[in-house]
Design goal:
Layout: H1 2-17, E1 20-21, H2 24-29, E2 33-34, E3 44-49, E4 52-57, H3 69-96, E5 109-110, H4 112-115, E6 132-139, H5 148-166, E7 174-176, E8 182-184, E9 203-208, H6 219-234, E10 238-249, H7 253-256, H8 260-265, E11 271-277
Length: 280
């Protein structure tokens, strides 16, 4: 009996000195009893660890840099909607770009690397602006080319002769052959190479392959020129308010001023007359 009394007293003393008083029922059910005190502010969680019981804090420190998943999802959705809006806006803008005429003839382009596969790369001054405002059309005053093989040979020979004579590249931005195909020379992003033509930084120079002083080019060449102008506007490389010009030889105006090439171009929209050349 004395031993039982000592056990009860020890148990009571332990409860008095412990902030948490455990009961058999609470242990079995997983709850705890908290003896409130001035120094205890955080409730303790009863957990079982390898057959022993320990206390664990219920409160966790909040991370100030942690982003809530809902907020993150809303931000991602907003960015997606903004991107879709930009794409739709650009598409609608392209639809509103005025085309100079309905084009039934498709645009055919042979890029420079397809006809000039030599180590000397194109080195030409770049245009300062994305969309230029002028197109100058002139003939090459050479033999015609009615198929791609002959047109490619003409471009290669012209490139070689220009490089041998002046250490410079073919001066045209583009050439249009009698096969109804556009051949890239200096392209949309480089200045033309004609020192006697104005507006090197605002102009695309297009050469019609052949001699058209006394006769007009084939209809397919005119159709391809229209397709080229439309494609240049579509690529935002030519202003929709562009100006179309012909080139007049200042030393021989009677020869180049009235060549058959311009008899049809003078009736086209955006025609603004002739520009003078100093060289034949």
């Amino acid at each position: 009996m004395y031993q039982a009394a000592r056990t009860v007293a020890a148990s009571s003393s332990s409860r008095l000195h412990s902030p948490v008083a455990w009961s058999r029922k609470s242990v079995q059910e997983g709850y705890y009893d908290l003896e409130a005190g001035e120094t205890e502010r955080t409730p303790l969680l009863y957990v079982r660890d390898n057959g022993r019981y320990r206390a664990k804090s219920l409160h966790r420190a909040n991370d100030p840099n942690r982003v809530h998943p809902v907020a993150l999802g809303l931000m991602v959705a907003l960015l997606v909607f903004l991107l879709i809006g930009v794409v739709i806006g650009v598409y609608l803008l392209l639809l509103t770009v005025q085309r100079p005429w309905p084009v039934s003839h498709p645009f055919f382009l042979v890029e420079r690397p397809a006809w000039w596969q030599y180590p000397v790369a194109l080195e030409a001054a770049s245009l300062d602006r994305l969309a230029v405002t002028n197109v100058i059309v002139l003939h090459t005053d050479s033999e015609d080319c009615l198929d791609q093989e002959r047109c490619v040979r003409y471009l290669q020979n012209t490139e070689r002769s220009c490089w041998a004579a002046q250490r410079d590249h073919i001066p045209y931005n583009f050439l249009i052959g009698g096969d109804g195909v556009t051949y890239e020379a200096r392209g949309w992003k480089s200045q033309h190479g004609f020192v006697d033509l104005p507006g090197r930084n605002t102009t695309l120079v297009v050469g019609m392959i052949g001699n058209f002083t006394d006769r007009q080019p084939a209809e397919v060449q005119y159709a391809e020129l229209k397709a080229f102008i439309t494609e240049s506007i579509r690529r935002l490389s030519l202003s929709p308010q562009y100006r179309l010009h012909g080139a007049v030889n200042a030393t021989q105006p009677s020869r180049d001023g009235t060549i058959a090439l311009y008899s049809q171009l003078e009736r086209w929209p955006h025609w603004k007359g002739f520009v003078a050349r100093d060289q034949p």
